[in-house]
Amino acid sequence: MQIEPQLTDAAVLEELGHRLKRTRLQRNQTQLRLAEEAGISLATVRNLEDGKPSQLVTLIRVLRVLGMLGGLERAVPEPPPSPVEELRLRGRERRRASSPRSEQ
């Protein structure tokens, strides 16, 4: 299922839970082992996979263990600098190379 804006929060949580479960199973990892490596309880892993609400730190820990934390960078990229910020940064750009200094 595609995660689209018209989906309810519950539907998005359920889809994320299914995806995490499929990824865990593809990596041949038990819920218990995932919980231990993430430092969370087994019940928390079950709740997350069932699409129940959880804390963001829980998702971060699970994504880290599953090697998927980089996905957050794509999901929430660093915003580009504002035009004012770009102008300020441009003023600091190096415009020419200096000649080598001779040793005396």
Brief sketch in words of this structure:
The chain has 104 residues and is mainly alpha-helical. 56% of the residues lie in helices and 0% in strands.
Task: Please outline the helices and strands.
Layout: H1 9-26, H2 31-38, H3 42-49, H4 56-65, H5 70-75, H6 83-90
Helix pairs in contact: 2-3, 2-4
Report what the structure shows:
With 104 residues, this protein is mainly α. It has a domain at 9-75: lambda repressor-like DNA-binding domains (434 Repressor (Amino-terminal Domain)), CATH 1.10.260. The chain is 56% helix and 0% strand. It contains 6 helices and no strands. The protein has helices spanning 9-26, 31-38, 42-49, 56-65, 70-75, 83-90. The radius of gyration is 23 Å and the shape is elongated. The termini are far apart.
Give the total of beta strands.
0
Helix and strand sequence: HHHHHH
Largest sheet: none
DSSP helix count?
Answer: 6
CATH topology (level 3) name of the domain at 9-75: 434 Repressor (Amino-terminal Domain)
Low-confidence segments, ≥5 residues, pLDDT <50? Answer: none
Q: Give the oligomeric state.
A: single chain
Span of the ends, CA to CA: 71 Å
CATH superfamily of the domain at 9-75: lambda repressor-like DNA-binding domains
Q: Please state the average pLDDT score.
A: 90
Sheet-strand content, in percent, reads under 5%
The CATH class assignment of the domain at 9-75 is Mainly Alpha
Relevant terms:
elongated; 434 Repressor (Amino-terminal Domain); 6 helices; 104 residues; mainly alpha
